[in-house]
Amino acid sequence: MPFFLDVHKLGGYSRPELEKSIGDGIDEFGVKVHQLLFNKDEDVLYCICEAPSKESIINHHKKFDCICDGIVETDYIKTAEMLKSEKLQAIGELAARIAHDLRNPLSVIKGSLEIMHIKNPELYKKSLDDFDRINKSMIRIMHQVDNVLDFVKPKQLRLEKMKICRIIENSLLKLNIPDGIKITFTKLDYELICDEEKLEIVFVNLISNAIQAINDKGKIDIRVFDNGQNIVIEIEDSGHGIPEHIVPRIFEPLFTTRQIGTGLGLPSCKTIVEQHGGKISVKTMLDKGTTFIIELPKL
């Protein structure tokens, strides 16, 4: 379909209300809105959209009580979505090469630690805390590498019947949990057809985020229950919550508010959960905390 640039006044809608329409997909007139550009006073809107004809754009804007002052067909506009896709592809290819190169030395370090454990058990015992820190740091780096590779080139799921609580418990063992954090885990166990390794990536990501959100001191509640249609896993932290304007972007690739991190953790979680036929959502309140909710199909 061709691209069009149209201009009109905002009508009776506010900027936030109109911006929500970008995620609506193709409407009944065949119009897909890609980008909205506002003038300085935010009373005139320039809209980049994909549509079968000018007439379909006119009908689309009538829904919003708007009359177009001008519509121009163009092949030369790159929307924000297109630019982002190109950027992601370039960054993804570079990140995949770097991640692949990191895997080999990480495997050597892991193997060397295991050999030291076998050959020098007494030394290992004396320096247990040091080796434990090295091991957990290495796991964290491998986890970041896996995030990049899983996002750039998702693998096929290896499905088998697993108990969900076992997966969560294994995930907790891979994390360095500060003494100031109390984790409560409601262990109502259920079996799922899933990829254990992939779901561990999800839980390690979400629990790591929760630990960082409460600055190494606070409470994390993990709940597992059956809502009648799905198995639900909730991970709730007692942190400061996520600002409202950031919430719509948290699952965007490369978006992060932290100085460290790839910005691929939550997008990877979303991809993995959706590969399992499930969905992930978030509830948050400033100064109260955040809850990530995962729903996975029952057996």
Radius of gyration: 24 Å
CATH arch. level architecture of the largest domain: 2-Layer Sandwich
Order of helices and strands: EHEEHEHHHEHEEHEEHEE
Q: Count of DSSP helices?
A: 8
Strand content: 15-25%
Shape: elongated
What's the structural domain tally? 3
Low-confidence stretches: none
Taking the alpha carbons of the first and last residues, their distance comes to: 42 Å
Number of strands: 11
CATH topology name of the largest domain: Heat Shock Protein 90
Instruction: Provide the spatial order of strands within the biggest beta sheet.
Output: 6-8-9-11-10
Proportion of residues in helical segments: 40-55%
Q: How many strands, what sense, and barrel or not for the largest sheet?
A: 5 strands, mixed
Structural class: alpha+beta
Level-1 CATH class name of the largest domain = Alpha Beta
Mean pLDDT: 83
**CATH superfamily membership of the largest domain:** Histidine kinase-like ATPase, C-terminal domain
Structure commentary:
With 299 residues, the protein is an alpha+beta fold. It has three domains: 3-77, Alpha-Beta Plaits (2-Layer Sandwich); 81-152; 160-297, Histidine kinase-like ATPase, C-terminal domain (Heat Shock Protein 90, 2-Layer Sandwich), CATH 3.30.565.10. 42% of the residues lie in helices and 24% in strands. It has eight helices and eleven strands. It has helices spanning 15-20, 54-62, 80-119, 121-126, 128-152, 164-173, 196-213, 265-275, and strands at residues 3-9, 32-38, 44-50, 70-74, 160-163, 181-186, 191-194, 218-226, 230-237, 279-285, 289-297. It has a five-stranded mixed β-sheet, with helices on one face. It has a four-stranded antiparallel β-sheet with strand order 2-3-1-4. The protein has a two-stranded antiparallel ribbon with strand order 5-7. β10 (279-285) and β11 (289-297) form a beta hairpin. α5 (128-152) crosses α8 (265-275), α6 crosses α7 and α7 (196-213) packs antiparallel against α8 (265-275). The longest helix is centred in the N-terminal third of the chain and has 40 residues, at 80-119. The chain is elongated. The two termini are 42 Å apart. The model has no long low-confidence stretch (mean pLDDT 83).
